[in-house]
Design brief:
- It is a single chain.
- With about 150 residues, this protein is of the alpha+beta class.
- The chain has helices spanning about 1-10, 30-35, 90-105, 110-115, 120-135, 140-145; strands spanning about 20, 25-30, 50-55, 60-65, 70-80, 80-90.
- It has one domain.
- It has a 6-stranded antiparallel beta sheet, with helices on one face.
- The longest helix has 15 residues, at about 90-105.
């Protein structure tokens, strides 16, 4: 749990709790929710910790605590195994990307609002390029997040 304690210290400095855009809400567990959230781990490695979830597909958001930068993955459980996809090179990069999504989500927090106020293609491309630059990786997760 020492690595979880390191993450908790980092998490306390981040005030972002959730981001909603279209059909999707991404939620980050607060410090007092983290211990109970580990029940969602099932058979993940010991050094992997559940830090949140996205509610469109009910996937969990996990960090690899064996790496001090805490890389962030989205994890889907399928037929007794996890399908993990790296979505941010570090927790801080993840937060920075989420903040960009939160900024663009104003007035688009649910499907009706997003339909009434769609994200222009050019703005979406700039946002995705910014997220890819932050993370140093390209990933379909961020594209999908902006589509729903």
């Amino acid at each position: 749990m020492q690595s979880l304690d390191r993450y908790i210290e980092l998490r306390k400095k981040v005030f972002l709790k959730d981001v909603s855009i279209g059909f999707t809400r991404m939620y980050l567990f607060a410090k007092d929710e983290l211990i109970n959230a580990q029940a969602m781990k099932r058979n993940l490695k010991d050094n992997w910790y559940v830090i949140g979830y996205e509610d469109l597909c009910s996937d969990i958001i996990v960090i690899d605590a064996s790496d001090e930068s805490f890389p962030v993955y989205i994890a889907a459980y399928d037929e007794n195994s996890w399908d993990l996809d790296l979505i941010a090179a570090s927790f801080l990069n993840f937060i920075e990307a989420l903040q960009l999504i939160k900024n663009i989500s104003v007035g688009r927090e649910n499907p009706i609002k997003l339909k009434e106020n769609p994200i222009p293609r050019e703005e979406k491309m700039v946002l995705l390029n910014d997220i890819y630059s932050i993370n140093g990786i390209e990933n379909s997760f961020w594209v999908d997040l902006l589509e729903y």
